[in-house]
Amino acid sequence: MSGILEGKKILVMGVANSRSIAWGCAQAMEEQGAEIIYTYQNERLKKYISKLVPDEKYLFECDVTSDTSITEAFDKIKNNFGKINGIVHAIAFAKKEELGGSILNSTRQGYAQALDVSSYSFLAVAKEGVKILNDPASLITLTYMGSDRALPNYNTMGIAKAALESEVRYLARDLGKDGIRVNAISAGAIKTLAVSGIKGHSELLKISQSETVDGVNVTKEEVGNTCAFLMSNLASGITGDIIFVDKGVHLR
Ligand code: NAP
Predict the structure, then answer these.
(1) Which pLDDT score, from 0 to 100, does residue 32 have?
(2) Which domains does the chain possess?
(3) Catalytic (active site) residue 144
(4) pLDDT at residue 115 above 70?
(5) For the stretch 220-249, what's the b/e string if a residue is b when 16 or more beta carbons lie within 10 angstroms of its beta carbon?
């Protein structure tokens, strides 16, 4: 049986390890027939993704804080794979000091770094992405409901996610003419490396679980399946949207 992504080449950015949401997305899309290309941040971190993706031809270095690194990565991807059909951006970072206590703990430098890696990078990737994306294509990023609520400890990252969600709407407006849809998945809390940077993250995961409609946390596989749908032509009418995949936690 052929899948809904048969014949599509998709770039996935943000696999740190097998717990990563990006890995859930990659696996779900592969199950639907897509060929997946990956980026990793730097040579030091390559060894982790290599355990999951042993074939070097699918791996490209890309540090999203560097325009040169992004341009080089996309040039190499184009040379090796030609045009692609979609990009999943599952990247975020803020220093621990930005993720605990009062928002007044935020610093100019920490704030700038968090927004650079977690928000601006999506725009930077889209700029290079349009050069190698087919028509139709789909751009997807990952967000969290701390974007529009003052949740404990999420702090600067909540501000970064608010900016990211706004980018989704502006990009959707401007890339629609090129056949590129742009959406975000607002995932529920899932235990990953990124989450462990948040002060009191164990508590956050417990509270989140208790607030799901069925008492069971959402999984990266469930987020991945939504990603596969949004990447596919079945979602051709959806753009500029934030899709919650959190088992109803946002209803509270
Ligand atoms: P994760 O596995 O730690 O993934 C975060 C990724 O960001 C890592 O692969 C990390 O790469 C990458 N990254 C950080 N700085 C980078 C840079 N300068 N250049 C390139 N890559 C960089 O955590 P995750 O939870 O799956 O996070 C994926 C996305 O989902 C994030 O946007 C996160 O905010 C979002 N999200 C997570 C949850 C949750 O509960 N887990 C909920 C909603 C949304 P390295 O490890 O190689 O540095």
Answers:
(1) 98
(2) 9-243 (3.40.50.720)
(3) yes
(4) yes
(5) bebbbbbbbbbbbeebeeebbbbbbbbbeb
Q: Is residue 91 a contact partner of residue 75, using CB atoms and an 8 Å limit?
A: no
Beta strands in the chain (DSSP E): 9-13, 35-40, 59-61, 84-89, 133-143, 180-187, 241-245
From the list 242, 20, 252, the residue with the least C-alpha distance to 143 is 242
CA distance 156 to 168: 19
Q: Tell me the CA–centroid distance for residue 194 and ligand 1, in Å.
A: 5
Query: Phi, psi at residue 61, to the nearest 5°?
Result: -75, 135
Q: Identify the pLDDT of residue 2.
A: 85
Index of the ligand 1 atom closest to the CA of residue 118: 32
Ligand 1 centroid, distance to 195 Cα (angstroms): 9
Query: Is-catalytic flag, 154?
Result: yes
* Ligand 1 binding site (Cβ under 6 Å of any ligand atom): 14-16, 20-22, 40-41, 45, 63-65, 90-93, 117, 142-144, 187, 189-190, 192-195
The helix (H) or strand (E) run that includes residue 208 is: helix 201-210
* Mean pLDDT confidence for 45-74: 97
Closest ligand 1 atom to residue 45 Cα is 47
Give percent of the chain with pLDDT exceeding 70.
100
pTM above 0.90, yes or no: yes
- CA 34 – CA 219 distance, rounded (Å): 21
How remote is the CA of residue 118 from the centroid of ligand 1, in Å?
9
Q: Looking at the DSSP assignment, which residues form a beta bridge with residue 87?
A: 11, 139
